[in-house]
């Protein structure tokens, strides 16, 4: 008797659990307000589709409805985090998007396509030779390895990763201009905090070491291998002030493994201490046709510190054209340039987001910096050379972006 | 709409169950028909016409078969079989024939590139079984159009089987009892199937996809084995998980569908494997092709020819491609060899040899199944035999083995009968723990009561955990971070 009764109770509980789960999720999803944007995923979420006869018959209503209920599912972030936990419990070393590295380090899973890499190197060569011929400009080129190469020890054992060093070597050998190879330098300093744990970028400290090498090799013209990378002292000991602006940064790699529980990263600003730091810079941000422009008082955009995408604090993120100038009044500038045009140095940077935290260091050496992101500029940057009286050119990418970017062809146009 | 989607789990299913149980008994079939047609129309609304045509055509054939005299009955049957095969042939195989025909005579015909109507292979076979069974007098004609349409289009088994013959559900079409015991059984079965599909099959699929992305001649031998092992588990848990969900859903609506999988990877011969794998399809081919052709009763040459015919057709049924034909042929050869002598040999050897022999052959068969170009199949097989520039193993092989070690253990364990036996042993044990003494001492009845409660708790905590985790994996599959720029 008891067993029968208990069997019935067991059945009822099972049915209750099932019905509860399949009804609660849609009900709560329906009652809660729809979200327009997911910070976690950095994308606009699907909104409720409009019901029309046409959309129903061609099947698009069904598809849109599916996207809508998926995107607006109640507790979605929590469920996705639960999935990450499941992956970890079962002992997986990656989730298809990132490797779960040691010491809480996450590595994006990427590949390098040699064909595109060689093509892009050719485009850079064409660009560099043209600039030399037409404007007598020297192009210097820096391709930066990512954490996958430098922090190899922290990868899961045997994790298949592209050989970034070999790829950088290929670029270096094929490039006809001045190449600044920071791989050894970053390896020397790999025990310092030079890459974010939760993001695919290098930290400002990583950029600082690369800048020191750039200054020595390109700006001062010293030969590579004539100096020991250990002589680049940490910024605090080299007359720089290191200031933490955020200690709550969770970047793109964390977004790819939500719920993994990465320790939050710290974002630093590194500036020359003393008088030089007093100088102010203004920053114009424009689209590729210069129809919409905005001016900012600083090269740092505080507003991003309150958002998910905190790395965009540097240069206000990726924009088609960014012009950074010393904040002197126009009259003074004309006088200066008029009296001594030789001393004015204007730099053009063709770049990806790795340059965003590197460029602030360059403000010490240049009067004007014009940064172009070809992914959004999408045409030849030649017009900018005359417009901004460019005297120096730097191309700066991380190796993965450089190997994958399909927009470098604009350099050859 | 697939079962493992947010739309199905959280919108279609609760609404269907709600409508079904709120409706009075005489409307229940109507409700099931309406939701099934809606389900079918979801992805490709136009194909609903195809479904309706198929239903009406087979319904009419059924009515005609009942009335006509003997000679005319045969004509009606032939007509119905022809129409059904024509539909299947046109929508599933047109491009395959066009492509091979034009290659054969050297002209260039443009493929139709029609999207495949979901479940057409399943419901056409179901309809065929109906008209043939009716002709043979094994079932009674369905005069109620709603009941018949519901039988053909019923959503639980519509897209991935099992192929339900009318005799399996004939009584249930008219009257079925929905008890909480049956519904709960359905819930458990559905949850088990969902877990198999979402937690096991999809994860095994990730392993296969990782390997399949790389060209086979760049793989090391060990990586190739790991990859195809991933596919071996993916296809089993995917397919059998789907059948479990179908059977579970059937129970929730009061039906008892036939079993479709019985631990095929625990077989000791390929013959046995095919008695345990996709049972409803095997039965179909046996009943409607193999036996009508004479089976094994017309001499051994005819017998082998029949095996070959059935397996080439079985191969083609799985997909319109040369690789599927080859896959069928591969099994035909093995089955013939087993019929002729291998089964006798195997029965003399230790069990473990039979298991190993079967598994190795089955794993190899999936290479034909998973890769659609014959060239890739060839070089993948070469790599599996160690003939690859990348050698016997490499770092990637060790990485994949390390990263998937836990998963592979669970998959191997889950493919045996062991988990199910363990479950039954546990429930039995808990039951026995209580009901030993006849003279009810207070202690005894307390023990029984507590054991029962522990059983209920364990079972339902497990159920909730599998369900919630499956939901998490379904939700996460739609998680799609966009990382660079917001336009």
On the 0 to 100 scale, the average pLDDT of chain A is 88
What is the number of strand segments of chain B?
0
Order of helices and strands of chain A: HEEHHHEEHEHHEHHEHEEEEHEHEHHEH
Radius of gyration of chain A: 26 Å
Through-space gap between termini of chain B: 30 Å
Overall outline of chain B: globular
Q: From the helix content, strand content and strand pairing of chain B, which structural class follows? A: mainly alpha
**Mind summarizing the main beta sheet of chain B?**
none
Instruction: Name the overall outline of chain A.
Output: globular
How would you describe this protein?
The complex is a heterodimer of chains A (413) and B (487). Chain A is of the alpha/beta class and 413 residues long. Chain A contains 15 helices and 14 strands. Chain A is 38% helix and 17% strand. In chain A, the strands form four sheets. In chain A, strands 6-5-14-12-13-11-9-10 form an eight-stranded mixed beta sheet. Chain A has a two-stranded antiparallel ribbon with strand order 1-2. In chain A, strands 3-4 form a two-stranded antiparallel sheet. In chain A, strand 12 (346-351), helix 12 and strand 13 (368-372) form a beta-alpha-beta unit. The N and C termini of chain A lie far apart (87 Å). The model of chain A has no long low-confidence stretch (mean pLDDT 88). Chain B has three domains: 6-176, no CATH class; 184-414, no CATH class; 418-477. The radius of gyration of chain B is 25 Å and the shape is globular. The longest helix of chain B has 36 residues, at 70-105. In chain B, helix 1 runs antiparallel to helix 2 (28-41), helix 3 runs antiparallel to helix 4 (70-105) and helix 13 crosses helix 14 (322-348). Chain B has 20 helices and no strands. The relative contact order of chain B is 0.09.
What's this model, at a glance?
The complex is a heterodimer of chains A (413) and B (487). Chain A is α/β, with parallel strands linked by helices and 413 residues long. Chain A has helices at residues 2-31, 53-57, 60-71, 76-89, 114-135, 147-150, 164-174, 183-188, 204-219, 252-256, 330-339, 359-362, 374-377, 382-387, 399-404; strands spanning 37-38, 43-44, 98-100, 106-108, 139-144, 178-180, 240-249, 265-272, 281-286, 293-296, 321-326, 346-351, 368-372, 392-398.
């Amino acid at each position: 008797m008891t067993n029968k009764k208990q069997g019935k109770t067991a059945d009822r509980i099972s049915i209750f659990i099932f019905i509860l789960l399949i009804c609660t999720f849609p009900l709560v999803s329906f009652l809660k307000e729809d979200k327009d944007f997911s910070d976690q995923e950095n994308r606009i979420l699907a909104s409720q589709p409009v019901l029309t006869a046409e959309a129903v018959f061609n099947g698009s209503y069904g598809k849109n409805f599916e996207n809508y209920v998926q995107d607006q599912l109640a507790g979605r972030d929590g469920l996705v985090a639960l999935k990450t936990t499941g992956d970890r419990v079962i002992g997986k070393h990656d989730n298809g998007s990132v490797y779960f590295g040691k010491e809480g380090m996450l590595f994006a899973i990427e590949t390098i396509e040699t064909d595109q890499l060689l093509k892009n190197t050719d485009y850079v060569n064409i660009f560099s030779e043209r600039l030399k011929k037409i404007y007598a400009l020297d192009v210097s080129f820096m391709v930066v390895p990512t954490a996958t190469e430098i922090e190899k020890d922290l990868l899961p054992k045997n994790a298949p990763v592209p050989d970034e060093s070999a790829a950088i070597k290929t670029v270096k050998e094929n490039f006809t201009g001045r190449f600044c190879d920071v791989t050894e330098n970053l390896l020397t300093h790999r025990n310092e905090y030079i890459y974010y744990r939760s993001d695919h970028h290098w930290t400002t400290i990583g950029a600082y070491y690369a800048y020191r090498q750039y200054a020595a090799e390109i700006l001062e013209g010293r030969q590579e291998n004539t100096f020991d990378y250990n002589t680049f002292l940490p910024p605090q000991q080299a007359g720089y002030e290191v200031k933490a602006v955020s200690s709550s940064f969770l970047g793109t790699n964390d977004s790819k493994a939500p719920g993994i529980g990465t320790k939050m990263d710290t974002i630093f600003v590194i500036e020359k201490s003393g008088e030089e730091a007093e100088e102010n810079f203004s920053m114009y941000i424009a689209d590729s046709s210069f129809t919409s422009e905005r001016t900012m008082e600083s090269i740092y955009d505080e507003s991003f510190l309150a958002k998910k995408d905190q790395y965009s604090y540097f240069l206000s993120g990726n924009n088609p054209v960014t012009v950074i100038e010393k904040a002197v009044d126009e009259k003074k500038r004309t006088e200066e340039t008029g009296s001594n045009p030789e001393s004015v140095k204007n730099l053009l940077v063709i770049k990806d987001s790795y340059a965003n935290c590197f460029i602030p260091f360059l403000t010490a050496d240049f009067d004007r910096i014009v940064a172009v992101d070809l992914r959004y500029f999408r045409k030849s940057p030649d017009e900018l050379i005359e417009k901004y009286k460019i005297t120096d050119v730097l191309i700066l990418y991380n190796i993965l972006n450089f190997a994958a970017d399909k927009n470098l062809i604009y350099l050859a146009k | 709409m697939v079962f493992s989607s947010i739309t199905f789990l959280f919108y279609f299913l609760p609404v269907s169950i709600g409508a079904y149980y709120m409706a009075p008994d005489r409307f229940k079939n109507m409700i099931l028909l309406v939701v099934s047609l809606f389900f079918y129309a979801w992805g490709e609304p136009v194909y609903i016409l195809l479904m309706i045509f198929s239903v009406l055509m087979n319904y009419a054939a059924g009515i005609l078969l009942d009335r006509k005299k003997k000679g005319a009955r045969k004509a009606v049957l032939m007509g119905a079989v022809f129409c059904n095969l024509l539909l299947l042939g046109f929508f599933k195989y047109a491009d395959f024939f066009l492509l091979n025909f034009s290659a054969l005579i050297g002209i260039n015909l443009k493929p139709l590139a029609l999207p495949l109507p979901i479940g057409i292979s399943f419901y056409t076979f179901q309809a065929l079984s109906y008209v043939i069974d009716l002709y043979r007098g094994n079932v009674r004609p369905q005069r109620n159009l709603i009941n018949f349409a519901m039988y053909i289009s019923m959503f639980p088994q519509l897209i991935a089987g099992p192929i339900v013959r009318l005799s399996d559900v004939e009584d249930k079409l008219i009257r079925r009892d929905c008890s909480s015991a049956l519904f709960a059984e359905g819930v458990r079965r559905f949850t088990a199937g969902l877990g198999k599909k979402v937690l096991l099959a999809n994860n095994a699929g990730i392993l296969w996809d990782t390997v399949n992305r790389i060209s086979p001649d760049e793989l090391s031998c060990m990586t190739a084995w790991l990859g195809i092992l991933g596919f071996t588990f993916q296809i089993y848990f995917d397919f059998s998980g789907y059948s479990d969900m179908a059977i579970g859903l059937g129970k929730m609506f009061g039906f008892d569908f036939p079993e479709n999988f019985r631990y095929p990877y625990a077989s000791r011969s390929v013959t046995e494997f095919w008695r345990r794998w996709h049972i409803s399809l095997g039965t179909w081919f046996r009943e409607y092709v193999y036996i009508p052709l004479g089976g094994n009763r017309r001499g051994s040459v005819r017998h082998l020819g029949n095996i070959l015919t059935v397996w080439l057709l079985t191969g083609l049924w799985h997909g319109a491609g040369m690789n599927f034909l080859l896959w069928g042929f591969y099994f035909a050869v093995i089955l013939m060899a087993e019929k002729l002598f291998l089964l006798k040999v195997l029965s003399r050897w230790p069990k473990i040899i039979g298991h190993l022999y079967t598994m190795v052959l089955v794993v190899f068969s999936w290479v034909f199944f998973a890769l659609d170009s014959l060239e890739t199949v060839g070089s993948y097989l070469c790599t599996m035999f160690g003939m690859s520039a990348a050698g016997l193993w490499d770092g990637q092989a060790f990485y994949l083995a390390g990263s998937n070690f836990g998963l592979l253990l669970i998959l191997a364990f889950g493919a045996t009968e062991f988990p199910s036996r363990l479950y039954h042993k546990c429930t039995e044990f808990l039951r026995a723990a209580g009901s030993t003494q006849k003279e009810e001492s207070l202690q005894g009845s307390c023990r029984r009561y507590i054991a029962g409660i522990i059983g209920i708790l364990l079972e339902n905590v497990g159920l909730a955990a599998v369900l919630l985790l499956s939901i998490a994996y379904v939700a996460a599959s739609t998680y799609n971070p966009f990382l660079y720029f917001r336009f």
